Amino acid sequence: ERGLGEGLGTLRGIPKERILCVRGDYDQMENLLELYRIPHTTVRREALGDRSLRAARVLFANCARRPDSLAETRRVVELVRAFVERGGWLLTSDWALDPYLSLGFPGAIERVEPVRVQEDTTIAVAPADARHPLLDGVFPPRVESRWWLEQSSKFFVARDRERAQVLVRSEDSRERYGAGDVV
């Protein structure tokens, strides 16, 4: 709570409809929101609708075990694309980048097939732009920051720097796996 400072108080004061979390099978970002007592609404992917997205400002998309039908995937991708184009923030994990970003915003990012991670490991990470406000307080001075990768991690590269801004990079990942964009 020290690190988030006044920002945490601001987050706790917003209506729960402003932060929407799509339930997933592997990630549970809603647990982090609950830990920090940040108001939010959690929905199943099939319950995601234009009405809930119109009220939201931030959408957390957890990764799912099984893909939706093609029709359901298209419906959700179109809703999320419209949400982002209206100024909404989308936060996903690596497995959830497909389909949300790769289908919703073709050419902005590209999934790459680097040398595979052989086992769960960590990589050294650093801010791509230490002055970016979203990274304020994330990287403490004189501390090596590490990022956890699991054996099944997916890798993406930002191709269109006008539409996709890299916040965190890893020279370690680029050298070991051929892809250095992390966040």
Polypeptide structure, described:
This protein has 183 residues and is α/β, with parallel strands linked by helices. Helix content is 30%, strand content 20%. It has a four-stranded parallel beta sheet. The chain has a three-stranded antiparallel beta sheet with strand order 7-6-9. Strands 5-8 form a two-stranded antiparallel sheet. Strand 1 (19-22), helix 2 and strand 2 (41-43) form a beta-alpha-beta unit. The two termini are 22 Å apart.
Task: Using brief descriptors, characterize the structure shown.
3-stranded antiparallel beta sheet, single chain, 183 residues, 6 helices, 4-stranded parallel beta sheet, 30% helix, alpha/beta
Strand order of the largest sheet: 2-1-3-4
Strand tally, please? 9
Shape descriptor reads globular
- Please summarize the sheet with the most strands: 4 strands, parallel
- CA radius of gyration is 17 Å
State the end-to-end distance.
22 Å
User: What percent of residues are in strands?
Assistant: 15-25%
Structural class given helices, strands, pairing?
alpha/beta
Helix content: 25-40%
Order of helices and strands: HEHEHEHEHEEEEEH
Task: Give the secondary structure arrangement, pairings included.
Layout lengths: L4 H8 L6 E4 L6 H7 L5 E3 L6 H6 L2 E4 L8 H16 L3 E4 L1 H11 L4 E4 L8 E7 L17 E5 L5 E4 L9 E2 L1 H7 L6
Parallel strand pairs: 1-2, 1-3, 3-4
Antiparallel strand pairs: 5-8, 6-7, 6-9
